[in-house]
Amino acid sequence: MSTSAPAKAPTPEQPGSGAASGALDRHFRITERGSTLSREVRGGFATFFAMAYIIVLNPIILGSAKDVYGNQLDNGQLVTATALTAAFTTLLMGVIGNVPIALAAGLGVNSVVALQLAPRMSWPDAMGMVVLAGFVVMLLVATGLRERVMNAVPYGLRKAIAIGIGLFIMLIGLVDSGFVARIPDAAQTTVPLQLGATGHLDGWPVLVFVLGALLTLALIVRKVPGAILISIVAMTVVAVVINAVADVPSWGLTTPTWPGNPLATPDFGLIGEVSLFGGFGKVGVLTGVLFVFTVLLSCFFDAMGTIMGVSDEAKLTDAQGQMPGINKVLFIDGVAVAAGGASSSSATTAFVESTAGVGEGARTGFANVVTGGLFAVALFLTPVATMVPSQAATPALLAVGFLILAGSVKEIDWADYTIAIPAFVTMVMMPFTYSITNGIGMGFITFAVLRLAAGRGREVPPAMYVVSAVFAFYYLMPALGLT
């Protein structure tokens, strides 16, 4: 994704201040991509802190559900599985894929596993469905189909996907910080969100977010290296102090308190607890295939949008918006989906919060080595890793979302309605439906229909028609009684 100056060209550093050399530089092509070792390290830290919440949130989502036998997954084991899989897959993407795209348990997919699969089968059966979805993703990559689908996306829609992701992560930041909140159903209103929890900005946590957002943006305007990471660390310290001296009812997911015992013993009890085909015996072949298809579709397009967006933002794409060596990245993503199922942490996928690291100047897989290493350390220091409150980390998403939007919106041909309208649909549906997949699907369908309506159907790549038909079937599944 193109961005404004701060993201395009981080402030130059003095020669030798963070330059990479030797085998490390050659493998990760740090200098070739215009980066430095210090930028990659900063980017790796920023990405970790922006997505460390998954260590806490994923166990909450999965651990709160019961399978068909009434069994629940152990929270401590889920923390270990989540951190371990994020560490392994992020390192794999960094060392082999050489891109600054971190991976962890996918939000949305874990809800599908917890709320749709588990109530119909055992937990090992449900995780087996996830593993099978990962195998299918790898097969699609091996046959070249996944790359053909990505390459068939028109340039304008690629930019729209980038903008949609920017708006989406901005909304994630606003919601996770408490700056905006869901209006309870008891209010009986069609308005879904409001300012703060009560319609007003009140409470210390919201103040931490506001100060963090202003600090982050001010540092970016001043072109200070490490702006995002500086803000995260500074506001974490502020939050810890506030929590110690003030009466704060709730910080939400994570309370910024220095743990009495920073060490934790990993519990690997869920690793390998998988039944590949047991679920089909519980729900039948057709329903089982549809379950795998549902997981596959979400993983396939969520990751596709994120990979396209982050790689463009990191200047890893060519003039046509395509990334050299994309097949390695896509295959690793398929491995990650299967690895998530094998560890019982749900499907692992590319995280849009990687843009926080890219905003710090990360351009290579070495940033992933740092992020993955921090996830590995988190296996033993989970209490410390999870003390950063969302109010300290989410200003990074607000800032990066703006930079993405500012740099990409001018790249769309707004005069051509057959691309402008699908682009608009793609952009708004991602935040409005809280799903990258939905934004892509609705944008693709709109593009195919409008090009046909304009008599320009031959300009639509065949792969776009196929994918649009798949999405249309997916959206019609409830009406057809197939869910």
From TrEMBL:
Disordered, as annotated region: 1-23
Keywords: Membrane, Transmembrane, Transmembrane helix, Transport
Pfam families per the UniProt record, alphabetical: Xan_ur_permease
Spans through the membrane: 43-62, 83-106, 126-145, 157-183, 203-221, 228-246, 285-308, 329-352, 364-385, 392-409, 421-450, 462-482
Subcellular location(s) per record: Endomembrane system
Protein origin, superkingdom: Bacteria
Topology of the protein relative to the lipid bilayer: Multi-pass membrane protein
InterPro entries (alphabetical): Azg-like (IPR045018), NCS2 (IPR006043)
Major location category of this protein: membrane
Family: Belongs to the nucleobase:cation symporter-2 (NCS2) (TC 2.A.40) family. Azg-like subfamily.
Protein's UniProt name: NCS2 family permease
Source organism of this protein record: Streptomyces marokkonensis
